[in-house]
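dumping this here before i forget
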Amino acid sequence: MGGTFVDVLVENYNDVALREAGHVPRKRIRKENVKALVDTGSPMLCLHKAMIAKLGLRFGRSATVRTAGGDFQRGIYDVARITILGRPCFAQVMEIPDTVPPLLGYIALENLDLVVDAKSNKVIPNPESGGKYMLDLL
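structure:
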């Protein structure tokens, strides 16, 4: 069985904020459409360094990440606005090696009230929310 992939629109949030304030035209928002592998064991949106540079995301900090192959230092970058199935949220971006596909982690899935449907191998709105966008604050 292959992994679950989902289309993700990733936008530079600083560009989005400048657009919303009327300082730049919509066409100046740096954005990329990404087919990301859903990784419910990873917390973050993970992209290749070249895509991070193309989006113009600024470096924030380094973090040690634990993987099956050992512990590694990875850069964590500015917040991006991501949109999946028409639902937007904000996500920090972590760099990953080019040998790994872009990854979508569980924080964004939770923020967007999306789940992986194992039968269809697709990301869908959470059925427990009745198709509505809902967050649990329990």
